[in-house]
């Protein structure tokens, strides 16, 4: 009976991991294809992300009374340096007739309008629904039999939406390929093994399949808003987080294999020793990104649960699939450098042993110098330009809509084709028209009345997506609001941009304090202390400030970026605080574990020694995966890629390696106040 029980136990030891592997293979096979389908349920039109209370949203709703369709204009502009010819005009008129048959194009199209200088022509083509395919077909028509020397572009709001969709089209393949390749190379360097990186990557791939399936179903049902930015961040977060958790588990497993002959016992000990910091890390990030639900922008609120789902899937794969495959492969997973039972631990030697010794000898000098370095970086934060940019500045490569907008600005009033929309009580039409005569409005005309309301189209003299146009709309709002009994509201494309920027600034003021409180609460529960969490949060905030200061210098003077969206600092803060605190969690949970038997000073030294390599590797992996976002030619993503990659490296190499352990040693056991370890 005892022999039968022992045989059954031995069978279960490999059967349970095998069943877990089969289950994840099924999840990966079914959910994996949905990563390529997320673009089908993403929305990249800014107007869809504004709250219902925004003035531009109210105007959009009222505007539906005046028109049966919600047409988005494509502005076709043709330019000839020596002046347009009758043949050029005939060409554009013929293409206008052809364009009328494109699915999604709304009749009537505008007439062909010449510029005053005679060098350009303009045609407005309204489109409904998702304009991507219609714009692509229109551009194909415009390229066909085009007269020599005539440059023709499809610009305007619909053109920009189409170009954004094309830019995000690379997410499915290119971003995954770049991120996966970077992670694979780093893992091969770290482990010097061909098999282990493959197992870790499989964990990330299966987590992405589960996350993609969940997000697709929720976005398809309208439960959450998904856009290209959220989609790209999801891919990066899943790969980065899954690899980070895997590095921590694998490192502890390798430690245990040197002390334990049985690989099943070793994986149980490794999982038991790492599940708390991994779960705490994932929980911190999940709660941090869910703080975006307090945003008034639908796009930000959508990113919160999307990112949380990705982290949750990474956690689940890391504590189920990865332990299962490690239990099955055992020491063979590390081939050709297998950790043998009874072999010495190499973690205590080498660079991290020397760094820990240096921190132990001169803690006060080290934390003072590192804090001064971070403060020096933070001093440049005022140089960060994050008040918004024009929509054409969103693209980092030359696209048709940007080139067309530049042509429009040279030859036509900047806001032609995308006027500001003023809706007011019809009885006050004359007074409101008079109020629209503000600096920057080139013309304003009534475009219809309905249900006691008048709709006025105000053409701006600046491009509708420019920062100058945003200022004009703000002045226009102030002026028409002053008309008594008019109840005037201003909407349109520029107003959407203005309201988005104002809402983003409000979100920063609300969400950042909430994230700090949430992270502080998680750390207090994890470390059973109040002083240590306050210390860790303070160091991460200082690291964030230094990162933003350095980013300001790089964006302004190295990369020459025109500015940044107001949401960039918010996203940078949420990700850096939530992700940056991870490495402090990995370190301080090990320090606390060792402090129980070794004391705080020796526990800190040993904890830094044994975790230095794995945490640094995790930081490099996460930084590299976020840097992969820069392959997408979108200003916002390029800035987030630099901020998070640089900030994570700063946290990993300076804050966690030097500042935090030096402060912990200098403060001593009081750092654990008010827990028993502080006495």
UniProtKB/TrEMBL annotation:
Keywords: Cell membrane, Membrane, Transmembrane, Transmembrane helix. Pfam families: MMPL. Its main location: membrane. It is found in: Cell membrane. PROSITE patterns: SSD. It is a multi-pass membrane protein. The chain crosses the membrane at residues 12-35, 173-191, 198-219, 231-253, 274-295, 307-329, 365-384, 509-527, 534-555, 567-586, 606-630, 636-659. Residues 537-665 form the SSD domain. Belongs to the resistance-nodulation-cell division (RND) (TC 2.A.6) family. MmpL subfamily. This is MMPL family transporter. It comes from Prauserella endophytica. The lineage of its organism: Bacteria, Bacillati, Actinomycetota, Actinomycetes, Pseudonocardiales.
